[in-house]
Each structure stands twice: as C-alpha cells, then as structure tokens.
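Q: Could you fold this chain for me?
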Amino acid sequence: MHDPIPTVTLPSGIDIPALGLGTWQMGEVKARANDEIDSLRLGLDLGMTLIDTAEMYGEGGAERIVGKALEDRRDEVFLVSKVYPWNASRTGTIAACEASLKRLGTDRLDLYLLHWRGEHPLADTVAAFEQLKTAGKIGAWGVSNFDTADMEELLTVPQGENCAVNQVLYNLSRRGIEYDLLPWCQSRGIPVMAYSPIEQGRLVHHPELIRIAKAYQATPAQVALAFILERESVVAIPKSSNLRRVRENRDAVDLDISDEDWAALDAAFPPPARKTALDML
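A: Sure. Below is the predicted structure, expressed as structure tokens.
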C-alpha cells in the first residue's frame, strides 16, 4: 500500500495534493499527444489530482491536451492555468481566461495565475481576477515568479491579500527562496508551488543524489521530489509524459529519508546564506 499523498491547504480552506502534474512542453508535438493524455490520466488514477498548465505552454497546445485528458473527469481535478503578463490588463485577463477555458473544454478554473510580472498594473490584473471569481469562472487566483518585494507590493493592492498561491522555480539546486520568500509565504499562509522540482531532469545525474537514492532503493528523481514534499505548504508539479516516470513520481511520497541523509543533501546542495535574485526558467 502506498502512503496517501499529503495535502496543502489553500487560504480558502480547500486542500490540494502536495504532488501534482505539470504540463510544460506538452501539446507541442502532435505525435506525442496520446502519450501526454495517457500520462495525465494515469496521474489522476494515482491520486495526483492537481494539473498545472498555462496559455504559454505550446501556445495553448498544453491546455488542449489537458482538456482531452479531462473530458469525463473534470470534477476530479484541481485545475490551474496562467495568463501571459502582456495579456494581464483588466479586459485582457478576462479574454485570456475565456480562451483558456475554451481550450480546456471547461466552464471554470480552480486557480488562475499571473505567469510573471509584466507592464500591466497589478491592481488591474487583481481586479480582473476578482471579477472572474465573482462570475464563477475561477475559484481562486495567484501569481507565479514573484519575489518577496513583488509579494509585498501585491498585498498593498486592493484585494491583493486574496492571493492564494505563488508558483516559483524551486528544487535542491535552486534553494534561494528558502532565505526569505518561502518563510514569508509560509508565515502568511500562502502556499508555494514548485515548478521544475527535478530541474527538468538535470538533477538526476548528481553523484550525491544517486548515492542517497541507492540507499533507499529509489531513484534520484524520487529523492529530489521527497525534498520538496518534506517542506511545509509546498506543492511539487513534476511533468512527465512517460507512464513509468509518472508512477515513479507518485512513489516518491513513500520515501522516508533519515536526518543524516537530509544533512548530506544540505552539504551537497547548501541552503542560501543570503538573499539572491529569484531564479526563473
């Protein structure tokens, strides 16, 4: 029997799985579409019922893939998408959301994020998000790639305190947010979503990660995911269109790594000693 997937509680009180499914680079190659759909459906079967996508991914292609995967399963899923910064004006956000909903074949998103900061005033984007919420098109809204100063500014905007999530690049090799952004979010009850939690596969070749993984009869990717799952109020969204890897990602929940091995990972991937600029991919 597997351990259940831990959950993270949103400010609204809704619980979401701490391990979900990413879709970056899906919907770009027609020949891969069926594998991508199958991998998402398997992920749902295994309890990873959060799917993260964006209008940017495959210029809408990933949303179409997700729509096909969810054809008869929409109600099982906590569905997240994102708006391009240049679409994030008051009217542009609403139009972008409508287009995303159409591609996804649904009438609502559970969470809608500003993909990164752009030229449009945050007040306009937030006003549009709140309008979408009132209309029942989205359940909640949040941001992505916001550093601490951005988050502080967001909270000064009318209804900015309604931000539900900040999605950022976070993994063993990118620990900068632990210095200030992660504690800032945790202290305010704003969960962090970690994208590229395995650094797009690059982490799996690290010798120390390989050594520790072998000790647990696990894979380096599983140890990298376990690192994220160990953090309070952090959700990991690895992407895979390989069924074996989807199962492997799910099994990362079962890993119970010793304090000694966490210390060895800290030595190999030191936590930040000072403030650094927010990493982005």
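A (continued): The beta strands are 7-9, 15-17, 21-22, 50-52, 78-83, 111-114, 141-144, 166-169, 192-195, 234-236.
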